[in-house]
Amino acid sequence: MESGKIIKGSLATVVLQLLENNGPMYGYEMTRAVKDGSGDKMKITEAALYPTLHKLEESGLLETEARTVDGRVRKYYQLTRKGKTESKKQLASLQEMIISLQQILNHRLQNG
């Protein structure tokens, strides 16, 4: 398994949590935050990020705002009230999954 990629099923949770922790962000900013935050060990490709952002927006979890920065229009994403609630739920679920995976990986069968 390639350690540089985020597990596809956790990408929505990562995006929601980034926005929860940092407020409005644009796409490239999110890819940099993951790369920098993981010490270059994980990354999100734009090909994976933007479909996820669009799905979250369609689900009512994100809203967007266009801002002009240095003469360029950037689309900023932010959590809706529903998105903040979902962010907490998904983070708790991901943390439970990580604990379960650790238990599975450390499990030793009883001889007998």
Explain this structure.
This protein is an alpha+beta fold and 112 residues long. The protein has a single domain (8-106), classed as Arc Repressor Mutant, subunit A (Orthogonal Bundle). The protein has four helices and three strands; from the N terminus they run αβααββα. It has helices at residues 11-22, 27-37, 46-58, 81-106, and strands spanning 25-26, 62-69, 72-79. A three-stranded antiparallel beta sheet has the order 1-3-2. Helix 1 crosses helix 4 (81-106). The N and C termini lie far apart (33 Å). The mean pLDDT is 89.
What proportion strand?
A: 15-25%
The radius of gyration is 17 Å
Can you count the helices? 4
CATH superfamily: Winged helix-like DNA-binding domain superfamily/Winged helix DNA-binding domain
Q: What oligomeric state do these chains adopt?
A: single chain
Second CATH tier, the architecture: Orthogonal Bundle
- The top-level CATH class is Mainly Alpha
Report the average pLDDT across residues: 89
User: How would you write the strand order of the largest sheet?
Assistant: 1-3-2
**In CATH terms, what is the fold-level topology?**
Arc Repressor Mutant, subunit A
Task: Give the proportion of residues in helices.
Answer: 55-70%
SSE string, helix = H, strand = E?
HEHHEEH
